[in-house]
Amino acid sequence: MRILVSCQHYWPEPFNTGDVCEALVARGHEVTIITALPNTGMPGNDIPDEWRDSARRDVVRNGVRVIRADLHPRLTGGVNRVRNYLSFWRNANKIARSLGDEYDVAMGYQFSPVMQADPALVWAKENNKKALLYCFDLWPASLLAGGFKESSLPFRWMRSVSKRIYSQADRIAVTSPLFDEYFRSELGLSVPDSAYLPQYADDAFLSAPADSVPDGYELAKTNLTFAGNVGQAQSVETIVEAAGLLRNEPSIAFHVVGSGSHLDACKTRAAELGLHNLVFHGRKPVEDMPAYYAASDAMLVTFEASPMADYTLPRKVTTYLAAGRPVLAALDGETRRVLDEANCGLCCDTADAEGLARIVRRFAALPNEEKDRMGRRAREYYLVHFTKGRFLDELEALLANLIEER
Questions:
Q1: What is the pairing mode between strands 327-330 and 298-302?
Q2: For residues 37 and 67, what is the distance between their CA atoms, to the nearest angstrom?
Q3: Per-residue tens of pLDDT for the chain, all 406 residues
Q4: Strands of 171-174's sheet, edge to edge?
Q5: Burial of 167 by CB count in 10 Å (0-12 exposed, 13-18 middle, 19+ buried)?
Q6: Which contiguous run of DSSP H or E holds residue 5?
Q7: Alpha helix locations (H) across 274-352?
């Protein structure tokens, strides 16, 4: 197949779109992606100087043709973020309209915002081809997680944009089967059932890590680790407050491995509480992360109370399962369903610090044999439901079916 992909995020940004595109090439397909100049996750969320060279706007990397649209860098603050979203949307759509009809099918790879999937739909419409929208984040629900009100003008405008984009896709693939409920009940769309296409973990988490123990871990304690982005939606503050409730239990230690917009606020709150049972390790390269997982008795996942908390299954959860670690979650909805079905962890209500402290205490009291069984069940569930091979098989079938339908 000759596949055109659109997604605002691509290597060297910390997203797995490059891995997916390169895996499709390895399976014999031709892949072109319309993406942005890297900035998200770069120092200062700015475009690195070496990427401003026009010679890097259209290159082939590991078999994938990568066409990069100019955009306003993400930087910091809400105004810059809006300019970032809108500038990519405008410039990437221009690129999509300039391309010929040499592709068989298009795929919009949709993280936040929803508009980054639009270039694939624009190209498909103009060339009488079909498009798959692969949906990770729900819009405009994601705006609620960012503090917007449903009555606000930005929310109402994005509701209109989101409805148009979701309804124009010929097929939607989702990372949680609950997304269809949102499309129908919240957006009022008459869409067919979406294809369930959950995310897979990086191969590094399936291998045995080195025996080295990261700094800050004492293996005699019960170590609980949150790994990933420390933003508003992730509600790492819930972990900080739970650590505060357990500060007098010296055998329990909390760890946060990652960075993000709320990291400083979390550190400030931990200092206010005088916590010595919580370590902030900062962001680490993905190749170093298996050692942090291996040193952890269980992994933590939290989210703030919002529709996103119920509807989504964060990729960190599939990564936790792949690593064979028990999972303690302050989450309801799809994440809770998966963990209950896998029988590999404990759950409490979303953003419930007291509940999280309670299940941490309960987990710490379990025999080591039961903790080990939880970890084995996590890995077994991953191997049945979330492997990379299964993901690619299903993605190929979805794209091939769209070509045949045309």
A1: parallel
A2: 9
A3: 999 999 999 999 989 999 999 999 999 999 999 999 999 988 889 999 999 999 999 999 999 999 999 999 999 888 998 999 999 999 999 999 999 999 999 999 999 899 999 999 999 999 999 999 999 988 998 888 777 888 999 899 999 999 999 999 999 999 988 899 999 988 999 888 999 999 999 888 887 776 789 999 999 999 999 999 998 889 999 999 999 999 999 999 999 999 988 999 999 999 999 999 999 999 998 889 999 999 999 999 999 887 777 888 888 999 999 999 999 999 988 899 999 999 999 999 999 999 999 999 999 999 999 999 999 999 999 999 999 999 999 999 999 999 999 7
A4: 58-61, 64-69, 30-36, 2-6, 105-110, 130-135, 171-174, 195-196
A5: middle
A6: strand 2-6
A7: 289-294, 307-311, 315-322, 333-342
How far from the centroid of its chain's Cα atoms is residue 121's Cα? Answer: 22
Query: Residues 6 or more apart from 38 whose CB is under 8 A from it?
Result: 10, 11, 12, 13, 47, 48, 51
Burial-class residue 392 by CB neighbours within 10 Å (0-12, 13-18, 19+).
middle
Tell me which residue of 121, 113, 95, 144 sits closest to 40, measured CA to CA. Answer: 113
Rounded-to-integer distance, Cα 112 and Cα 107, Å? 15
Residue whose structure tokens are 């953003």: 351
Residues 6+ apart with CB under 8 A from 372: none
Number of H helices, E strands in the chain: 15, 14
